[in-house]
Write a structure and sequence with these properties.
The chain is α/β, with parallel strands linked by helices and about 375 residues long. The chain has 14 helices and ten strands. Helix 13 links the parallel strand 9 and strand 10. Helix 1 packs across helix 3 and helix 10 packs across helix 11. It comes from Pedobacter helvus.
Length: about 375
């Protein structure tokens, strides 16, 4: 007797799944070997040039020699060889060794601005490393255990669009943890995700210890909405829902959409929140409330009311307290600091922009906030 068609299809899908998994493993292994190869070639070229044994002409001769011996190979021209040299020098420099020593724990790697989660009671915040891997103290081990996890195209983007080692490590972490595509990585780089995430972390540390680090940004950038400069809160909400995939990409892949105009019943009245999400790593709901004007202290009262209602009536016993994010069209940071200084609920007041922001302005703002932070330590 023949198997039902449904069972046969299930068998077929199992085989397809095995093929896909095998292909992914082969691709991952091939990519790791390629990155290690480029790192090794970069080491040789770097050391020869540094010692004065090779000049620019010799590198050109090497490119020609490789082409003659291996005519089908791509990426080993003069430009490609110098990229390999840069790749090795960046990740074997004294700066990276120093950064690894100060920011990575002994026997494990913990990237800059790791995700944290709240466990147990709401006053306790415990760090959880997004990527933990053994390292034996050599740059080649770092390459093998970390750098080889993302492909060469991603490395070239990070090398060309970042300056600081901390920034490079941040995007390495993003690529590995969130499995960013080339397009997604380009958007993070172009929208200065590193600076905005660090700004969110720094400002949170100055005024409160309730928020996890590495999750929220300030400001948020919604250039994909194509909104006019003058728009209503309804326009903003509808545009974000319509472009939900890009909105979640801007927030981070840990977010799951729960709905807009989410209804909360308190007493005999119904209230509707703007945008509600669930964060899988934090295990809590995250409420985004939208304002098209500059932050006012009274906005916080409404946000706290919604968070209390969510925690009493919607939150499940195993979940952590809800987090609120007020997205405003501008804010006075001193007013925000005063407003949040006695706030009980975990909340963030963040700007939003409808156009890409100059990275230099964000870097200057981050530097200024860092000075405030260190003074308060």
């Amino acid at each position: 007797m023949n198997k039902p068609i449904k069972n046969i299809t299930s068998d077929f899908e199992q085989i397809i799944s095995l093929i896909t998994e095998a292909r992914n493993r082969v691709y991952s292994k091939a990519n790791a070997e390629l990155v290690m190869l480029y790192f090794s070639i970069g080491k040789i070229v770097s050391e020869k040039v540094l010692a004065g044994n090779w000049g620019d002409g010799t590198v050109n001769d090497l490119a020609t020699y490789i082409t003659e011996k291996q005519p089908l190979l791509r990426g080993f021209n003069r430009r490609g060889l110098y990229r390999m040299k840069q790749f090795y020098e960046v990740y074997s420099s004294d700066e990276i060794v120093s950064t690894l020593a100060t920011q990575f724990k002994k026997d494990e790697i913990q990237f800059v601005s790791p995700a944290v989660t709240q466990k147990g009671n709401k006053n306790k915040i415990e760090k959880v490393s997004p990527l933990v891997t053994q390292i034996e103290g050599t740059v080649f081990e770092f390459c093998k255990k970390v750098l080889s996890k993302i492909n060469w195209t991603h490395h070239l983007l990070i090398l060309s669009k970042t300056k600081r080692i901390e920034e490079k490590l941040f995007y390495l972490n993003q690529c590995i943890n969130e499995k960013l595509s080339k397009r997604e990585l380009e958007r993070q780089l172009n929208s200065a995700t590193f600076e905005r995430t660090m700004l969110g972390d720094k400002f949170s540390k100055v005024i409160t210890s309730k928020l996890p680090v590495g999750i929220f940004k300030d400001p948020y950038v919604f250039e994909f909405l194509a909104l006019p400069e003058i728009h209503s809160e309804s326009d903003l909400q509808q545009a974000l829902v319509k472009n939900l995939q890009n909105f979640i990409l801007e927030m981070g892949k840990g977010f799951t959409y729960m709905g807009s105009e989410y209804r909360l019943q308190v007493g005999n009245k119904d209230y509707h929140t703007d945008l509600l999400f669930y964060h899988r790593d934090l295990q809590c709901m995250v409420l985004f409330e939208l304002k098209i004007e500059e932050f006012q202290p009274e906005f916080l009262g409404k946000l706290n009311f919604y968070l209390e209602a969510l925690d009493r009536d919607v939150k499940r016993p195993h979940e952590n307290p809800s987090i609120g994010v007020l997205l405003c069209k501008g804010k006075d940071e001193e007013v925000v600091e005063y407003a949040l200084s006695r706030n009980i609920s975990p909340a963030l007041i963040a700007d939003y922009e409808t156009k890409l922001i100059d990275k230099k302005l964000l870097a200057e703002k981050l530097h200024q906030l860092s000075e405030i932070f260190y003074k308060n330590e």
